[in-house]
Design a protein that fits this description.
Blueprint: H1 3-22, H2 29-55, H3 61-65, H4 75-122, E1 126-127, H5 131-139, E2 153-157, E3 166-170, E4 175-180, H6 188-204, H7 207-234, H8 240-274, H9 283-289, H10 296-303, H11 312-320, H12 330-354, H13 359-388, H14 397-415, H15 423-426, H16 444-471, H17 481-511, H18 516-520, H19 526-550, H20 559-563, H21 566-586, H22 594-597, E5 616-618, E6 621-623, H23 639-642, H24 645-655, H25 658-661, H26 663-674, H27 679-688, H28 698-714
Parallel strand pairs: 2-4
Antiparallel strand pairs: 1-2, 3-4, 5-6
């Protein structure tokens, strides 16, 4: 008997740990991992809406051609009306694209509601009024106790199939539990443990969210992948191969993420059931150990990562050490990066339509939104790992996981449908909502450099996040645990906004084969460098403050330790980081953002000296296209050539920045535009000729490129 108390102590400690984890104000692993599904599903739905509702409708040529002025007018007014009208059309297209995620959510809600009733019909379930309901009542919490809620209805599933045992379903207000009929023959202790596990699912409210995610996956399969794939097979084009490869890969990534969520939710429910103070110690472990051994099909699904339940051994390991459930693996970080890369390519184009001509600001805002989404997954996960002392938050593990996060961002950006090829070249109706994003044909050295930068940045971000959690003394419970974690998430998003947005803008210019000076103009400015350094300094301030606090006194518990308030310090750091991010983005009044003013509305930037392609034959001599002159020599410019809109617009495309920045070339370009039978181009000519040697009028430049873009796409 003397050993009984000592033998019971470890089990009691595990119960207290489990109770602390499931009652923590920090988001549970199931919650954060569900965010991955939201990111990937939102990206897929946005692309599908653009494919069917914008590109599939010819990019709305009537709406865009209606922007062409019908009569002459003041040059500035003509240009302002034209560019404003085209931008309004693209803004409307962006709003239509946003209908994709909203439609997916609506259909998923309908699918979840229908699925609940269909499952009862498919299982031939009937309301139970036998002794089995009494066993469920025995494990229900008191009406005024913690976790009390609506009493779930018990349904008994017909048939003789064994394996499902019991399953939680229904809604928060009308929950129910479906049980197999063979449960009548099981011992009361095992049945009650099973019911506690299902009640834990209901108490954690993961049933509805998971069913919503499952419905979203099926909708993406039936409403996006299969229809788009069928359309590509019936009418294959140059982009068919790239899309047909990417869509199934993204769908598989989403399925693997969904299965991971289904497995994680079982661990959360096991810990919540174990934390029930009325349950006998070890009852949950006994229930898990009695699970039916997997058959061959289940073993195969587990081998490929498609199992919806973890193995009994894994569940027992988590029950023996509850802190194991709060780790964060490199695979989870890789999946988060994939989701972020997929969504960034969609969201950046939509945000850019809200602020035409402000590409760097648009990409920084997108970086902020994606940074917050990523931080809501990985920063919270690292915060949890530090709070429980998990090994995933110590040593070199965070750096490796962060490198996987960066690699996932790169892979996700290239798995996007936007990166399936050159939409401008291969699709006659593609505009600014589809540009060159694929790095497949970019120089290998540049792609390698972009990859290394992302992986190193991810490793530094992970190291900083875990160090910040330790400096702020991350806790599982307590009044400051959730506010400090939330402040860290906000600070993390602010910190990565400008670097992440700049990387994607730089990668876009690399994919479009922009001139080197345009690529480097994204970051080679004193405002960008100063702002990033200020942001990094603000991010390191909490670590320095914590180090100074620890050094005050032999135990670090002196007056400085008592004055250290993590939330306040993180808020002050956030102000500094915000100031740095804003200065890096808008410092200098956009004067240094040449990539913004010379990027065409569709396709690669206008700074591309020449596009690679087949050689052009002239007489008996074959001349590579990049060696052709931008315009014929002056003596060969006949009146017919000068009045040819296609030739003049092609000269603007191949001429690069020199036709705008060189005074003489700008004068020649303006004279060519003035000789065309086009109201917009003549208005641009008049504006450019006002001061050929002064600064380039941005409105005239943008309007000229927009007009030529419409001419090439619609031949009008």
């Amino acid at each position: 008997m003397s050993g009984a108390p000592g033998a019971a102590t470890p089990a009691a400690e595990r119960r207290e740990t489990a109770r602390a984890l499931v009652s923590s104000p920090l988001p549970l692993p199931t919650t954060t991992r569900l965010m991955l599904l939201v990111l990937v599903a939102g990206a897929g739905a946005s692309f599908a809406a653009w494919w069917w509702l914008v590109l599939g409708q010819g990019n709305w040529p009537g709406a865009q051609l209606a922007c062409l002025p019908a009569a002459e007018g003041a040059p500035d007014a003509v240009l302002a009306r034209f560019t404003g009208c085209v931008n309004d059309v693209r803004l409307t297209q962006s709003a239509v694209v946003l209908c994709g995620p909203l439609g997916l959510l609506a259909l998923a809600l309908l699918g979840r509601a229908a699925g609940r009733r269909l499952s009862l019909w498919r299982w031939s379930a009937q309301p139970d009024r036998s002794s089995l309901s009494a066993r469920l009542t025995a494990v229900l919490p008191d009406e005024d106790g913690d976790g009390a809620g609506p009493r779930p209805t018990l349904w008994v599933r017909g048939g003789r199939r064994i394996g499902v045992r019991a399953r939680a379903s229904g809604t928060v207000r009308k929950p129910w539990i479906v049980a197999d009929s063979h449960l009548f023959a099981l011992p009361d202790r095992q049945v009650e443990a099973m019911f506690r596990h299902e009640l834990a699912h209901l108490r954690l409210r993961d049933v509805g969210r998971v069913r919503l995610a499952v419905a979203a996956w099926w909708i993406l399969l039936a409403g996006v992948t299969l229809p788009v794939g069928a359309a590509l097979l019936l009418d294959p084009g140059l982009l068919a191969a790239g899309l047909l490869v990417r869509m199934p890969v993204v769908l598989v990534v989403l399925l693997l993420t969904l299965c991971a969520v289904l497995r994680v939710r079982e661990h959360d429910a096991d810990l919540a059931a174990e934390a029930d103070p009325r349950a006998p110690l070890g009852a949950t472990a006994e229930h898990v150990a009695s699970d039916v051994p997997p058959d061959r099909r289940q073993r195969l699904r587990r081998a490929v990562g498609l199992a919806s339940h973890p193995t009994s051994a894994t569940r027992l390991d988590v029950l023996a050490d509850p802190a194991r459930a709060w780790g964060v693996s490199a695979a989870e970080c890789l999946a988060t990066g994939l989701a972020a890369g997929l969504l960034f390519t969609e969201l950046a184009l939509l945000v850019s339509s809200l602020m035409p001509g402000r590409a760097q600001l648009a990409y920084s805002i997108t970086g902020l939104l994606i940074g917050w989404a990523v931080a809501g997954v990985v920063v919270v996960a690292w915060w949890r790992a530090v709070a429980v002392g998990h090994r995933d938050a110590s040593g070199r593990r965070p750096a490796r996981a962060g490198a996987a996060l960066g690699l996932g961002v790169l892979v996700g950006s290239q798995l996007s449908g936007r990166a399936a090829g050159d939409w401008v070249r291969d699709t006659g109706t593609a505009d600014g909502l589809a540009t060159a994003l694929s790095l497949t044909h970019a120089p290998r050295a540049q792609v390698l450099a972009l990859t290394v930068v992302l992986m190193i940045g991810g490793a530094l971000f992970a190291t900083w996040s875990t160090s910040l959690a330790r400096a702020a003394r991350a806790e599982v419970t307590g009044p400051r645990s959730a506010p400090a974690c939330a402040a860290a998430v906000v600070l993390s998003g602010l910190l990565v906004a400008v670097p992440l947005g700049s990387w994607f803008l730089f990668a876009r210019l690399v994919a479009a084969r922009a001139a080197p000076d345009i690529r480097w103009s994204v970051i080679a400015t004193p405002w960008w460098a100063t702002g990033v350094l200020v942001g990094i300094g603000g991010a390191l301030a909490p670590l320095a403050r914590a180090a100074w606090r620890t050094g005050d006194g032999p135990t670090g518990e002196g007056p400085a330790a008592r004055r250290f308030r993590p939330v306040a310090v993180l808020a002050c750091a956030g102000v500094v980081v915000t100031a740095g991010a804003g200065w890096a983005t808008v410092g200098g009044g956009f004067a240094g953002t040449s990539a913004t003013s010379v990027t065409r509305s569709s396709g690669p930037p206008a700074t591309v000296t020449a596009r690679p392609g087949p050689p052009v034959t002239t007489g008996d001599e074959t001349v590579p296209i990049e060696d052709l002159p931008v315009l014929p020599p002056e003596e060969e410019r006949t009146a017919q050539l000068r009045a040819n809109t296609a030739l003049v617009c092609r000269a603007l495309t191949l001429g690069g920045t020199v036709v705008w920045t060189d005074p003489q070339r700008r004068r020649d370009t303006a004279e060519l535009l003035g000789g065309l039978d086009d109201t917009v181009l003549r208005a641009a000519s008049a504006v450019l000729l006002r001061d050929p040697t002064g600064p380039v009028d941005r409105e005239a430049l943008v309007a000229s490129l927009l007009r030529c873009d419409l001419y090439f796409r619609y031949h009008r």
